[in-house]
Amino acid sequence: MGRVFATLGSVPDLLGYARVSTDEQNPDLQLDALQQAGCIRIFVDRASGALDERSELARLLDQLRPGDVLVCWKLDRFGRSLRHLIEIVRLLEEKKAGLRSLQESIDTATAGGGLIFHVFGALAEFERELIRERTRAGLTAARVRGRRGGRPTVMTPEKLSVARKMYDSGEHTVAAIAETLGISRATVYRALQIETV
Length: 197
Prior knowledge:
Blueprint: E1 14-20, H1 28-36, E2 41-46, H2 55-63, E3 69-72, H3 75-78, H4 82-94, E4 98-101, E5 106-107, H5 111-144, H6 157-169, H7 174-181, H8 185-196
């Protein structure tokens, strides 16, 4: 039997998301709050807030259907940054699903909650523009002083010469060359390709 999507006037499915940073932390507080809120399923990740990979969050997002609501205990358990949070909310909008945060009393299905997230989105865009402006100003100032922007290269002319000789001898793998020179294999590949073009 197919899944029945939420329709006008019906109660949406609430899917909960909880996250704790380490195995030692206990998600019970979050789980209790999500169950009290009426979540029919709860997905729990045990991962640092900085990590991109959250398998349970990915599973939850995959299972969301139009009309469903993703419920989290607190926004800092959900998004690793304001920018990440905005990306998730945009994805939810594409899926025609909502986001509810219990601690902050935010619900994107309401006019007030939607407004708050539009403000968040504007702030995230403002932050990106400030970073771009600072980067451009820094590069311009560096050029005025005769410096080029970007990270310094790890492949010096001496290292390039040694890498070329080792590679041409046919006796050394790229991994061995990289280890000998203290650089990454990608750097060796890049440098040798540049020289042979």
